[in-house]
Amino acid sequence: MTVDEAIAEGSAALGNDAESARRDARLLVGNVLARTAAWMLANGDAVLADVDVARYRAAIRRRAGGEPIAYILGHVGFYGRTFAVTPDVLVPRPETEQLVARTLETFAGDRALRFCDVGTGSGAIALTLAAERPRASVVAIDVSAAALAVAARNAAALRVGERITFRLEDALENLERDMVFDAIVANLPYVRSSALASKPDPTSFEPRLALDGGRDGLGPYRKLLRRAPDHLARNGLLLMEAGPDKSEELAELALRALGGVGWVRILRDYAGLRRIVELRATPG
Ligand code: GLN
Question: What pLDDT, in 10s, does the model give residues 226-248?
């Protein structure tokens, strides 16, 4: 079987949306052969070894079963960098890049910034902030030891490990009182328990721990908001990714938690959905 034939066979097996099926098939061939897209374009006639055909077909079967391609490839792009991902972590989404962009836009790089990423998962937010702000230190918190292991691996690969403190904890519950941050950024579980998808939905392959926001989807954020204002520096920023149907309610909870010192607003994501709640602890 040649590269072109493999892509054609895989695309057909993945069906439905022809364009994304072809893209996935191409990525999976490239992954099995450890070749770039450019190499495959130039080498459509190259013949795959039997062992590679078998590995490729296994990968196509997984994808056809709904598994996110990031888990099959073992990595995903986020804010221009590559992050290893396993089924122990949520696959970082493009809309989450906006939490990073907003934080960077708020804080220029000329001082020793202190950031905190709550529910770090693969470390996408924490490590990107560290990479983009070379004097920053970042506390990366997660309740999952397996997730922190993935994040630590990514930190080493991105050479930011010495500026990251990993903590196996629930939200900010165990944080020392005197720890304050310029920004606390969180993409906590916010899917209502009753709305969690089942197979073959791609999110059903992701850790429930990273998605399940409880009965109304706001449980984890309620817990975060109990402590977050105490850990924000003057003018500190709190950014929370939320379900678009819940951002209004989350903004109200945030305003109440703030107790009047500062402001709260909702930002739209790139798709125009009201997904990010921004809180700023600005004294009047
Ligand atoms: N954006 C994810 C989804 O819709 C949810 C992420 C989360 O709960 N933090 O599947």
Answer: 999 999 999 999 999 999 999 99
Residues with CB under 6 A from ligand 1: 93, 187-191, 203, 211, 241
119 dihedral zone (left: phi>0; alpha: psi -120 to 50; beta): left
What pLDDT is stored for residue 284 in this prediction?
A: 64
Average pLDDT over residues 60-86: 98
Contacts of 57 by beta carbon, 8 Å cutoff, 6+ apart: none
pTM value? 0.96
Indicate which residue's Cα is closest to atom 10 of ligand 1: 203
Ligand 1 atom showing the smallest separation from residue 213 Cα: 8
Q: How many CB atoms lie within 10 A of CB 69?
A: 18
* 237 DSSP β-pair partners: 183, 280
**What's the 241 CA to ligand 1 centre distance in angstroms?**
9
Using one digit for the tens of pLDDT, what is the confidence trace for 84-124?
A: 999 999 999 999 999 999 999 999 888 999 999 999 999 99
Identify whether the C-beta of residue 168 lies closer than 8 Å to the C-beta of residue 148.
Answer: yes
